[in-house]
């Protein structure tokens, strides 16, 4: 069964004013359009073709067509016009404990100082759709960070000294907590000034340019210096980035398809006017330095690619359909399809729906799978397919 889905873009301040509109082939509204949620999350459920929210449709009709009463994943179209907050997400155990604690404390779930809005974890995967998608993900190896800080002259020396501990994880965790504590503002301002005015022509030009860009939006924000400790990633179309629990990250600019466990739990670490709970962030943070957690698509069949992750909650595939090659897709569990380029017709039995860029639909389990034909690209989000981490 094919069920058309729509939703109104969320107007977060960091959203792009034109990326989603250009994808959909319409005139921009002039307002930020940050995310289109395509799922049943109660915070902003998608709407089915008959006008019901998807959570209501699943509860009322899902069982009769083999669909679950609740999806384990949330698919989004994300368009960043300016940097999102630096953030990390809790593990499942941490989310359950934090949610229960705030429920006992009677904090309203929509309160600005609420941290845990549900009891679920939020591993997430993003795949670039725009020509470039800029992000920060994970903490850079300390040897690289020391070389970057050396370019800042005397201003970089105090921070570099703080990162000299033999245990890199302790060193990074202590430094991030200090930067966000409010006790380091003088050092933060000096570092930002040094980074903005530093000479270019080095191996870290892109990182220094990013700091200058972020500082324009968030002058004097300690998160600007936290960002200086993170890996800068530039994704090309089709390239992916997977963020498990505890990993610091921030999306900076570009359009992407994002898939995550169905949760809205965020622990922020700068670049935002919203609530930052430094102590709680440090309890969920994984401060291990290393390369960015990139994900390469693996070919699953002719024209069909899968993005492997350890998340048991979701699986993401990409179908590249051409005029001379249909793509067959197995659908053993409920899936949501999203078109991003061209025109792709989804065929399920006698039903057929055309997916143009930005259009989406839910597909209930199909024993014979579905066929995609036409010319374009569609992403397929569903439950499972990952390898559960030990």
Automatic annotation (TrEMBL):
Its EC number is 5.3.1.8. GO terms for molecular function: mannose-6-phosphate isomerase activity. Pfam families: PMI_typeI_cat. Residues 3-141 form the Phosphomannose isomerase type I catalytic domain. Keywords: Isomerase, Metal-binding, Zinc. Its cofactor is Zn(2+). NCBIfam families: manA. This is mannose-6-phosphate isomerase. It comes from Microbacterium aquimaris. The gene is manA.
